[in-house]
Design goal:
Blueprint (H helix, E strand, L loop, with lengths): L4 H12 L4 H8 L3 H18 L14 H12 L3 H5 L2 E8 L6 E2 L1 H8 L5 E8 L2 E8 L8 E11 L2 E9 L10 E6 L10 E6 L6 E7 L4 E7 L4 E8 L6 E11 L2 E11 L3 E7 L1 E4 L5 H13 L8 E8 L7 E8 L14 H5 L1 E5 L1 H4 L5 H13 L2
Parallel strand pairs: 1-6, 12-17
Antiparallel strand pairs: 1-2, 3-4, 4-5, 5-6, 7-8, 9-10, 10-11, 12-13, 12-15, 13-14, 13-18, 16-17
């Protein structure tokens, strides 16, 4: 899939079903300006990636092997049975949680509790499992997780989990509570999770719009009585940052962006290649940003994970950091994301002394972690 979920939804509703931007904004719980931005990026990507002959687009069909593996996977209850269906390097993604990689971790993660029920089906031609959970004391099963599988050589090599809860492993340890501001305003009513464990905490939304929200944390057992912070709702509180580099006889050089960041300055500033999380695998966002902002066509296998990072104690935004070695690769013109600011930006190669002066803290963090990995 070339488009992230929200771009795909906006594109289909507008260009296939003919909805107005106002109707799409209401459906996606956002503003018209955000819808126009989603449409702009989606059309830009499809113009670049779509085949010239529409007949080249076709939906794959499930094979008999796919159906049999899906049936066995749906009926598997214990980790050992699940192991027989998985590839050694199987990968499970459930954004925004970190991916689960490897057969041992995946088999343990996928062990289903007795109150799960599953429905084998397909989605866009891919083997799919819909998971229903009955909570303690409830007579009903509720659809919570959809697993879209990729099967190769008779083994499950990937499962993309689309879910309504932060993580399946937390389902029996969380309960939802509804908080309203002191004035009772429905504009800040929001469903939040209260952890059912010692030292659990509550989060209350003070203000929100489609781009960000202002929140406060209460954890009386730990002496926290109203710690205020911001959350970037537009990207689910997560941003990807990538540091391309190449090695030369004179030493290692790093690629950064030079573009206007209005909250810093109205003049171009040096910064990392960054982009908001768009609802799929964070690695896919990293690959897309390198192409859009630097002009390098890479794959997920090229990425060097550098862990996560925070940027401020007044925001919960998590930066997922990656590096990529582009030594010997051809650099094309950066495609951009269709925005005016990015179109006017450029890239710049810096040596170690120069890169240390960049004011964007994520650049320094990525350089330090990358250098620490060097043999």
């Amino acid at each position: 899939m070339y488009l992230p979920p929200r771009q795909r939804a906006a594109f289909v509703l507008r260009d296939v079903h003919g909805w107005t931007p106002q109707e799409i904004a209401a459906a996606l719980d956002t503003v018209v300006a955000a819808v126009n931005s989603l449409l702009q990026r989606a059309r830009h990507t499809l113009r670049r990636r779509a085949p010239s002959n529409p007949q080249d687009w076709c939906r794959p069909q499930l094979t008999s092997t796919d159906k049999e593996i899906l049936r066995r996977y749906a009926n598997a209850k214990d980790p050992e049975t699940i192991r027989t269906l998985l590839a050694e390097d199987v990968r499970i993604t459930m954004p925004p949680e970190p991916p689960v990689v490897g057969i041992d971790a995946a088999a343990e993660f996928l062990g289903r509790a007795p109150d799960w029920r599953t429905l084998p089906t397909s989605a866009n031609g891919r083997p799919t499992l819909i998971n229903y959970l009955r909570r303690p004391g409830s007579p009903h099963y509720e659809a919570l997780v959809v697993d879209v599988l990729r099967i190769e050589n008779g083994k499950i090599v990937e499962s993309k989990c689309l879910h309504r809860c932060p993580s399946r492993c937390r389902l029996q340890h969380a309960r939802h509570a509804r908080f309203v501001d002191e004035q009772g305003s429905s504009s800040v009513t929001e469903e939040r999770t209260r952890l059912n464990q010692p030292g659990g905490h509550m989060i209350k939304v003070l203000f929100e719009n489609p781009w960000l929200s202002l929140r406060t944390v209460y954890a009386p057992d730990r002496g926290i009585d109203g710690y205020v912070f911001s959350h970037e709702d537009r990207c689910q509180g997560r941003i990807v940052a990538v540091l391309p580099y190449h090695d030369t006889p004179a030493g290692r050089r790093y690629l950064v962006r030079s573009e206007v960041t209005p909250c810093w300055s109205l003049d171009p500033q040096l910064s990392a290649l960054t982009g908001g999380y768009e609802g799929g695998d964070i690695e896919d966002d990293a690959v897309r940003e390198v192409l859009e902002e630097a002009g390098y066509a890479i794959t997920r296998a090229d990425l060097v994970p550098l862990g996560d990072s925070y940027a401020s104690k007044s925001a919960d935004t998590v930066y997922s950091l990656f590096a990529v070695n582009v030594t010997g690769r051809a650099q094309s013109v950066a495609t951009g994301d269709g925005s005016a600011l990015e179109a006017r930006g450029s890239t710049r190669w810096l040596d170690t002394a120069e890169v240390c002066k960049v004011r964007d803290p994520q650049v320094a963090v990525m350089v330090m972690r990358l250098e620490h990995q060097r043999p």
